[in-house]
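User: Okay, second chain of the day. Same drill as before: sequence in, structure tokens out.
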Amino acid sequence: MICEGQTEEAFVNNLLVEPFALKGIYLRPALIGKPGHKGGNFKFERLLPDIRNRLTADKNCYCTTFFDFYGLPTSFPGKTALDPGSQMSTKAGALQNALVEKLTASLGEDVVRRFIPFVQMYEFEALLFSDPQKMAVGMDKPELVGSFQSIADAFESPEHINDSPQTAPSKRIEDLIYDYEKPLMGTLAALEIGLDAMREKCALFNAWLQQIETLAVE
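Assistant: Same drill. Structure tokens below.
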């Protein structure tokens, strides 16, 4: 799993590794680029060698991505071609298909069949709005339950919250918590909420995990 940053890496380690290991699927989160890098800067030119190295070094290995749409440069495959008025799921599918097409041109179809594309059409923090009450408790801010709930209630689902870079989930949290520490508070909130609630409320996130689950050997 090539992750956006340290928060996503911690999320995989703390919430996904164990339940997937029980299914016989062993997840190894890593940040894009060289070891020690903090992640980010998801230019295709930086992503390509990471995916190539993982898929060609071990032909039993699958590779997936865990990063968000708003952090992608305009040069990323498919980004500028998206219709802003399209449904979120349509935009996600088009972007991921464009990524697979570009990878296939570079690596070949046989290699890329072991790649599972996933681009969040929101930020990591959107997942936390799956349960505003537990989100507030996990961040040790129980007085913010009502504020978090109001934000969640204003959207079709947590995955719809990131309607612009200025009002992204993290920005909404920072407006309420001036010293919001994403890696620590985000992870604590995620642990409090639990994976099941996120999967229930976030359809695209759940569909991604279902794809990975199909790799389990019966």
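The two ends are 22 Å apart (CA to CA).

User: Thanks, on to the next one.
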